[in-house]
Design a protein that fits this description.
The protein contains four helices and two strands; from the N terminus they run αββααα. The protein is mostly helical. It has a single domain (about 5-89), classed as SRF-like (3-Layer(aba) Sandwich). A hairpin with an 8-residue loop joins β1 (about 35) and β2. InterPro entries: TF_MADSbox, TF_MADSbox_sf.
Length: about 90
């Protein structure tokens, strides 16, 4: 499949996913934060916007007990090593 075709299909499916996220937020009255590692941009795509997504994740992260938070947190070096290991698999 050519890059142009993949990009078109990706954008079509992204639009559908964002529509579903918005419907879920509206119809079910829930907080929705969508983060997509976009291969066609230099940064992740976020919905509804960066500030809302960041605040949503921070809010739920702060609500976790301290022990759970410490299990999730990693240094930049640890994160990089985990990514390298995963790529080597």
């Amino acid at each position: 499949m050519q890059v142009k075709e993949k990009s078109h299909k990706y954008n079509k499916r992204l639009k559908g996913l964002l529509k579903i996220s918005d419907e879920l937020k509206t119809l079910c009255d829930v907080e929705v934060a969508t983060v997509i590692d976009d291969p066609y941009r230099n940064e992740p795509y976020t919905f509804p916007n960066n500030d809302v997504v960041r605040n949503t994740f921070i809010k739920y992260f702060k609500e976790l007990p301290a022990l759970e938070r410490s299990k999730i947190m990693v240094t930049t070096e640890e994160f990089t090593m985990q990514r390298i290991k995963k790529l080597e698999e």
